[in-house]
Amino acid sequence: MRLVIFQAMKKVFHTLHLWLGLASGLVVFILAITGSLYAFQDEISGLGAYHYVREEQQSFLLPSQLQKIAEHALPGKELQALKYNDRSKAAEATFYAYNPEYYFTVYLNPYTGEVLKIKDMEKDFFRFIMRGHYYLWLPPGIGHPLVACSTLVFLLVLLTGLIIWIPKNRKALKNRVWFRWKKGTKWPRINFDMHVVGGLYVTIFALIFAITGLVWGFQGFGQGYYKLMGGKKSLAYADVLSQKQAAGSSVRINNPLDRVWLLMCREYPTAGSIEVHPVHSGSAAISANATQRDRKYWKTDYRYFDQHTVQEIKASNIYGRLNDAHFADKLYRMNYEIHTGAILGLPGKIFACLMSLFIASFPVTGCIIWWKKRKKKRVSVTESKPVGSKQ
Predict the structure, then answer these.
(1) Mean pLDDT, range 47-72, rounded to an integer
(2) In this predicted model, what pLDDT tens digit does every residue of 260-270 receive, in sequence order?
(3) Which of 17, 28, 261, 389 is the least buried, fewest Cβ under 10 Å from its Cβ?
């Protein structure tokens, strides 16, 4: 009796797996392909000659000096960040805004201030790939929820796929856990095994990609995921403010951006990069961050300073000092690198890329299986009709 009920349930899950897979297949294919390409964005984008400078035995120019040079190179644009890298690499000045929308990076020699390149990031190849992965190249208000919903549907496809994978008996189990191809094995069998057998081993990684993607896809999902892990802080990044400067106060610091940068250089002498953010209002705090040499962004220390006094302000969000982060904070901050495989370095990215390509094959092999069965049913129905019967 239990076996009959289980088989009936499997039929229901099989139907769900089929139609949910057909509904989300194209989007999943696009997300998997763009994700596999975007995984190597840092490595490939850093190949340009303008990323490098000759190392010199002198100090870098101060942020206030680089700021003037960068703003002169891009008049009318708002500077958001100055990033100092290794001593043999260019500094980066980032300009972006949402209304009107623009995104530029000015690469500068940190010793001399020479402008090495002004790059329109909106025309960058990986920016194009990222827009496809996040929005399917649609307006964000349409593309983002479509990607999020498709990712949720894909998660259900994976779960139903695991259920219908369960074989009837031990004999069938052998054909579900490994490829048993022989010389002369026909393509339909190979296609079926790629979807069913290969799918079994890739599903665990596909689940990780889907869940980490949903953290960004639905705000409620991300907050629920964070709280489930014991998180208690705010997930909002921009909620740190300076104290209002009292009228006539004499405690105001000259060149606070330079002071913050010098402090960060003293406290993080071995950092892979140090970034400072100029303020654009009287209430904003100066934010700064230091990334370690291994480029694991989840380990980044985020610091905030009063723009009037350069006194440090403790963050109430998860983007503070790493030593102040609890397990849930660290796990949430790891989300990007788990999603891309970067948590395990370059080998992890390569592995994630291969898994993404295999995931991209799921909708293709699944559609072929469905089409073959559909075609077979039509042939069976035609052959079963008596000669001379009406079509």
Answers:
(1) 94
(2) 999 999 999 99
(3) 389
- Take residue 391 and report the two structure tokens written for it: 């079509």
Range of the domain at 79: 54-110+245-325
Q: Angle, nearest 10°, between helix axes 125-135 and 2-38? A: 160
Q: Are residues 21 and 150 in the same domain?
A: yes
Q: Is residue 385 assigned to a domain?
A: no
What does the pLDDT read at residue 183? 76
Distance of alpha carbon 92 from alpha carbon 73, whole angstroms: 13
d(CA 105, CA 83): 10
Q: What is d(CA 9, CA 159) in angstroms, rounded to the nearest whole number?
A: 13
Identify whether the C-beta of residue 195 lies closer than 8 Å to the C-beta of residue 362: yes
Question: Strand, helix or coil at 282?
Answer: coil
Strands (E) located in 13-150: 79-84, 91-98, 101-108, 115-120
Q: Are 94 and 217 part of one and the same domain?
A: no
Span 276-297, pLDDT tens digits = 999 988 888 999 999 998 888 9
pLDDT of residue 249: 46
pLDDT at 272 > cutoff 90 = yes
